[in-house]
Design brief:
By secondary structure, this protein is mostly helical. Helices cover 55% and strands 5% of the residues.
Length: 554
């Protein structure tokens, strides 16, 4: 916990100068001081994405970024001092209860992040993706080794650049940092709006969001940062709010494309031509490195789409790309990625609505929320909230037709729920009711400190919470859930790789030394598609391609 706290404090100091430089480039005059680190993350995501095609993100790049941060701190010294003073002043102006609430969030975020990673995707591709970037940068056709590596997010690029991988294997905690920063913003704005505003009630979902906090899941920054954009959209008198929101939104798009339909919000927001130019300019700056990343890793510039396939030997075979797409779609409708269901949309929808466990809670809950919100007076009478409602609905329908996993529509679920809680508190006319709601919500993540089995999901990997060790108050748990896992050396053609001895999951690789992929996955792809990955040269750094073969190739 202590090490994670120090890490988050360091990130704040490191990123703030980059945020100030970004704010200067955007000509922002009224930027909330705590948002500077988020702008700094966006700025560094571009820098790292430009470096990674040519060089690894390791100690050399980290030292370069550190020196750049020191230089910018000197350049923006007066602004930097003012920024820190404003944050201290904001904290001091908080009611004692809200100070305690934020400190509680900070402590629990650091405690949870120092524990055992919960999200199983961490073991399938998060860890390996980050390791590849740490050791080699972007590797040509690495998606041929494991198709999930094609899903390399800009968030993983950022984590690779900021995880101190050259010193330790225990720091992949960007998500904890974003929780701390965004929670401070929520609480400040909550008190400013007379302690009854939807943005404060987002904290009611901490027990859910903390599931994503201990692994570098790209879902969490979307869920936490987009409400800030919604907040600025509802504040008509904030001139800089639009520019801030444009930058943050486009940053989120390159983190995860599922958020793209929410960009419809800007059609109703942008009124001046110069803001259109700003949107396009920032979009191009983010888009080009993203296209380069996809082109190198998979051969598809707009992966996961196959609109353009480059004429290169490392292009992922279309049948492998479509297989990954199929898995993603099925994951939203069925309990298992590999078992069938209805073939028509109505049959899929029937399967989706009747899923069990936690899926049932969110799948049925989101439908109820959209219905209730539609008839709510606030949504009917306030134009900006009405616009938000329809944009959220379009996004939800998009998710429903692609892969309706509840984590993909948590933005809608949380915003609508928070808004309805706000309306409920207003209706009861009890201004103190919000305090017990928030206190209980922020205390609930304590349950993650105790070993337990969660009966809300059929996914065995997500049913058990590991006991928190006292030692983790000082030294975090390794970045993997399985630090004791053993690996064996396997050779296929000209490729030597490490494979988990225990097949804990078909797509699972854990934290084995590079190259690392599950031998069972290799056999699965071989038998299903008659292809297997091979080195392009005798150097791993030069990447991989998929080689056709017969079933007896092994």
């Amino acid at each position: 916990m202590i090490l994670v706290f120090i890490y988050c404090l360091f990130l704040f100091v490191l990123l703030t100068p980059f945020g100030l430089a970004t704010a200067s480039l955007l000509k922002l005059k009224k930027l909330h001081p705590v948002l500077n680190p988020l702008l700094g993350l966006g700025f560094l995501s571009i820098v790292f994405s430009v470096i990674a095609p040519f060089y690894r993100l390791n100690i050399e790049v980290f030292l370069l970024i550190l020196l750049a941060s020191i230089y910018l701190s000197i350049q923006y010294k007066p602004l930097l001092i003012t920024n820190y003073k404003l944050i201290v002043s904001e904290f001091q102006n908080l009611d004692v209860f809200y100070r305690f609430l934020w400190i509680l969030v900070v402590l629990l975020a650091c405690v949870k992040s120092s524990g055992t990673p919960f999200v199983i995707d961490n073991e399938s591709y998060y860890l390996q993706t980050i390791n590849w970037i740490n050791e080699y940068g972007f590797v040509k056709g690495v998606a041929n080794l494991h198709i999930y590596f094609a899903q390399t997010s800009t968030w993983h690029v950022l984590q690779a650049g900021l995880n101190f991988g050259f010193l330790t294997d225990r720091i992949n905690d960007l998500n904890a940092f974003v929780v701390i920063v965004c929670s401070f913003f929520y609480i400040i704005k909550f008190q400013l709006n007379r302690q009854n505003h939807w943005i404060g009630f987002l904290l009611a979902f901490n027990v859910l969001l903390f599931q994503f906090i201990d692994a570098p899941s790209p879902d969490l920054p979307l869920i936490l940062i987009f409400p800030i954009i919604l907040y600025y959209f509802t504040k008509k008198d904030n001139r800089d709010g639009l520019s801030i929101s444009i930058f943050l939104f486009l940053f989120l798009v390159v983190i995860k494309l599922t958020i793209l339909p929410l960009g419809l919000l800007f059609i109703f927001w942008i009124r001046k031509r110069k803001k259109v130019v700003l949107f396009l300019t920032i979009g191009i700056i983010f888009l080009i490195p993203w296209i380069v990343k996809n082109s190198i890793i998979s051969g598809y510039p707009f992966y996961p789409f196959n609109w353009i396939g480059l004429d290169v030997d490392w292009l992922v075979p279309e049948k492998l790309r479509s297989f990954a797409e199929e898995i993603t779609v099925k994951a939203g409708y069925f309990e298992s990625d590999y078992h069938g269901g209805g073939t028509t949309f109505l049959q899929k929808l029937h399967s989706w609505i009747n899923l069990s466990g936690i899926n049932a809670v969110f799948n049925r809950g989101i439908i109820i929320l959209f219905v209730v919100a539609f008839v709510t007076k606030s949504f009917q009478e306030k134009k900006r909230f009405r616009i938000i409602y329809w944009v959220l609905l379009v996004h939800f329908i998009f998710i429903l037709f692609t892969s309706p996993q509840y984590r993909f529509f948590l933005i809608e679920f949380m915003f609508l729920s928070a808004f309805l809680i706000q309306d409920g508190v207003q209706y009861l006319k009890n201004k103190y009711l919000s305090r017990p709601i928030l206190l209980i919500s922020c205390l609930l993540p304590i349950v993650f400190l105790f070993p337990m089995t969660i009966p809300l999901t059929d996914n065995l990997h997500h049913q058990t919470i590991t006991k928190y060790q006292i030692s983790q108050l000082f030294v975090p748990h390794p970045n993997t859930k399985f630090p004791e896992m053993e690996y064996k050396a396997v050779t296929i053609g000209n490729l030597d790789f490490n494979s988990p001895k225990n097949n804990f999951m078909l797509f699972g690789s854990g934290a084995g030394d590079l190259p690392c992929v599950n031998e069972v996955y290799m056999n699965y792809i071989l038998n299903k598609f008659e292809i297997y990955p091979q080195l392009r040269t005798d150097n791993v750094k030069d990447g991989f391609y998929s080689k056709p073969t017969q079933h007896d190739a092994l």
